[in-house]
Thiol-disulfide isomerase and thioredoxins (Alistipes shahii WAL 8301), 352 residues
Amino acid sequence: MKKILILAAAAAVLCSCANKNKYVVDGKVEGANSMVYLFDEKDNILDSAAVTNGVFRFEGVAEKPQTAILRDARDDGATFGAMLILEPGTINVTDDAQNPYRKKVTGTPANDASDAYATAGSALVQEFRNPETTAERREAIEQEYEQLTRTVLDQNRDNLFGVMLLSQQLGYELSGQELLDEIAKFPAEMQQTDALVRLKENAEQMIKTDIGQPFIDIAQPNADGEQVSLESVVRNPANKYVLLDFWASWCGPCMGEVPHLKKTYDEFRKKGFEIYGVSFDEDRGDWLGAVEQNGMNWLHVSEVKGFDNQAAKDYAIQGIPSNFLIDGQGTIVARNLRGEALYEKISELLAQ
């Protein structure tokens, strides 16, 4: 009898834990396909549900909060997709009357915060893109958007949406130490989430490539298959400054930087400026085609493996374009010089 009572008590505890972490996803999406699927961040199917007149429901248990993608097709053919955070409570997925291309995901703290942030951010973006918006107002909008992100982050450090904001919105612009400082502001429980654990590891690696740190060598094949090391370029007496540039032909913002790179390279090449480009392309033809078609006449290397590249790990690259300016002594003196900032920095340094 005693054993039976113990087992019954254990079962009750397990049931209680399951109920505590239970989530429900209630959806009503007009025109949805006959089945909807929940995918994890690695695109594995977590669950599926039938759709009747646009209505569907998922029920499950999330041992810890996690992000998921909702689509109404396994592969191609989806009529919609929506990101949501699986956490205890009822999550509602509905059409957005203000934006037909977006689904509203609300009902739990993290999803409500995500929806409110997306709505506020969308309004600022629309105003920014309005042809009648003045240049002065656009500059103010950029500052408002950044402040919005930081305010919402501080309001959501107790849930997974706050983690997502830090890693996906602010992670690119902060230094390694700044990231560690931000991570430390989260409760201990949130610091144990997979996303923040990975971000902390990345931040610790970033510190090794902060301004003032020595560069980390890279050696990868050029277009002819010959290994070219970053060290050989940095140590070349003819080069006073070397820009280590991470890019890919499929990256729109990367290609948008090309005119600025060309302008700076053409003017300062003979004065001691060189570029060592590392491509994250996965197709050799795409990589070399972009180099030729855009007249990118500086040094290029690639393992043609996308982000599965040791240099990406060594330099803690989270997104591209990314760049590091290295002086002749091998010290990183600047990071992520975009647009005219690169030209202005090189002009200033070589004028000294």
User: Anything to note?
Assistant: The first helix runs from residue 2 to 20.
